[in-house]
Design a protein that fits this description.
Blueprint lengths: L20 H4 L6 H24 L3 H10 L6 H10 L4 H10 L27
Helix pairs in contact: 2-5, 3-4
Length: 124
């Protein structure tokens, strides 16, 4: 049995098709994703600063989290913090385990704030 595949070849004049795949489509980041990225980075910085201030090794944080009822091993904790893949609840649990009692909330930089358009009234 022989299987034949028909391949559609597209020839274009655009130089974009000559680029490698990882350069082809760069999405333009909207302000919402930039704002989310700002707060994700800030949360990671809060956790790293709290860890550095208390000089906590990851294994000790994992033990303290287990005392709070969060079942996580040391390597999983390291991966979560390094990948910045944690929820707000988990961030609060981490900060609580490290003895932090206050949480500074940052102000959004001006370039990431949304500008409201002034709506025109129908009479203008």
């Amino acid at each position: 049995m022989q299987i034949v595949f028909n391949v559609l070849r597209i020839k274009t004049e655009s130089p974009i098709y000559d680029l490698p795949n990882h350069f082809r489509f760069k999405p333009v980041a909207d302000k919402d994703s930039l704002q989310a990225d700002f707060f994700r980075r800030y949360a990671k910085k809060l956790i790293q600063d709290a860890r550095d201030d208390g000089n906590f090794p990851y294994w000790e944080i994992a033990e303290r989290l287990q005392a709070l009822g969060v079942d996580i091993d040391t390597q999983a904790l390291i991966n979560k913090v390094n990948r910045n893949a944690f929820s707000f609840v988990f961030a609060l649990q981490l900060l609580s385990a490290m003895g932090k009692t206050t949480l500074p909330i940052p102000t959004l930089p001006d370039e990431l704030k949304r500008r409201r358009r002034r709506s025109r009234s129908p009479n203008q």
